[in-house]
Structures are given as C-alpha cells and as structure tokens.
Design a protein that fits this description.
The complex is a heterodimer of chains A (about 130) and B (about 150).
Chain A lengths: L9 E3 L5 H9 L4 H4 L1 H6 L9 H15 L7 E8 L9 E11 L2 E10 L2 E11 L6
Antiparallel strand pairs in A: 1-3, 2-5, 3-4, 4-5
Chain B lengths: L14 E4 L2 H11 L9 H6 L12 H14 L10 E10 L8 E14 L2 E11 L5 E12 L2
Antiparallel strand pairs in B: 1-3, 2-5, 3-4, 4-5
Classes of the chains: A alpha+beta (about 130), B alpha+beta (about 150).
Chain lengths: ~130, ~150
Amino acid sequence: MDVGDPIPELRVTPDRYLPHRYAGASGDFNPIHIDRELATQVGLPGNILHGLYGMALVARAVTEAAGGDPRSLRRLTVQFRGMGVPEKEIAVTGTVSAVDGDRVTVDTVAEQDGKRIIRNAVAELEPLRHN
Amino acid sequence: MAVQTGAKGKRYAPFAYEVGREKIREYAQAVGEQSPLCYDREAARAAGLRDVMAPPMFAVVYSAGAMAPAILDPEVGINFALMVHGGQELLWGEPVCSGDAIETVAECKDIYEKDGKGFYVFESVSTNQGGQEVVRGTWTNIVRGV
C-alpha cells in the first residue's frame, strides 16, 4: 500500500430487513431504523440505516484492503452526514494518504445515490501478513 | 438558550459485558464480516487468538451499555428529538475474543456550542479481564437549534 493508491471499492446493497438484523445484532432499536411508518411521520424518507452500520462497512473496506485480518485496524474516525437507506447500493472508496513504517493511513468515504453518508473517514492500519 | 456545561468531566458507572461466540457471529453476519477469524475457532486459534475474534466495530455493542446512561443523563440535557450522531472515533488495543469480560467506563468530555448547535462529546474506555485496554471511543452527538 503506497501513498495515492486507491483501495479496492466495497459495494454493498443492504436488503430491506438489514436494519432489523443490525438492530438485533447491535442492540440499537431506535424506531427510525426499523419502523417505516414512524420514520415517515418524523419527516424521514423511510426507515434509515444505522450510521454505525455504515461505519462498519468502512471498517470492512479498509481491513479487507489491508489483507483481511481484523486486527489490522488500529484507529478509525468518521463523520456521519446525510442518511443511508436500505435497498440502495452503498459504495465505500478510499485512498492511501500516508505510510509511516508499518502504519498506513487511508482516507475513505461512503456514498449512496451520489450522496456522501460518511465523510472525512480516516483509518489507520497496521497490515498483518500471516495469512 | 445556551447549552448547560455542568456535566463536563462527569464519569459514569462501569458497564460489564461478557462476549459470546454466537453474539459475535450474529454481529459479524449483520455487517457482512468476511474474516474467518470471527467465525471459526480453529482459524482464530491458528492465528494466535484465544477464540473467535469480535469484528472491530463490535466495540459499539459492548460499549453501548456504558454510553446510554451518559447520553441520557438529565444533567447533560441532550434534546433527543434534535440530536444526531455526528462523529465517531475508535482506537483499538488488544483484540476482543469470545469469553472476554469487558468493562467500559464513559465520561462526558466536552459540551460546547458552535454555529447554533450543541456539541456533546463523550469518551468510553473499555478494558478486558486482564486490565488491557481494548478500545477507546470518542462519541460526538450534535443537537440542532440549542
């Protein structure tokens, strides 16, 4: 991984019930994520994805780019902007912005429908080469 | 109305969480984790881990119980109807594996107002049964129109 290298793009289309499975897995049952009717009543386009699910996709994209060992990921910081929805493709893209010894920094963004749902994502990785 | 800043520096009671193999699997499947280290005990052990490893973002699962009382604290005074999760930082230490007993302590680090919005910044520090730090999180919640 050298400065300026793009990381392999991660494309995921969360299905209609992904927010429900993520709610169960994470324990975050905020109704704006799982109740389409309530979400619409509070002015949202429908039930929306959990921001931390989007962050987990960013974590996957950078970790997979570093060889796939989850221990490679040392730090991740993100800003949540806009909102993601189920049943539309999310693309996570990134570029290596710094290499300092074993530590690689990747700047990343997650987009859906041309809009950034996660921006200013910065990951620091220490790739492991054992597998 | 200005934000109340009296809760700055307040620390909350530790929250204990026992990490289980099936909870790791459930979370890993939900986020589409690809690493066999999160599903296959033999693969995890061959890679030098005690047991299957939690995906990095599983940190939000064992931290949530520590964060909720801080974010819900009336002294912090967040207006939930107008709150969004603005930013998140996680800094990982030792890997978290099935069987670990994780303890997380939350602290209200900062409360300030900027551009008509209230910023509420919390830190969580999670340690394992051996006293090793496994994750340090910074959670930024933004409230519009304070």
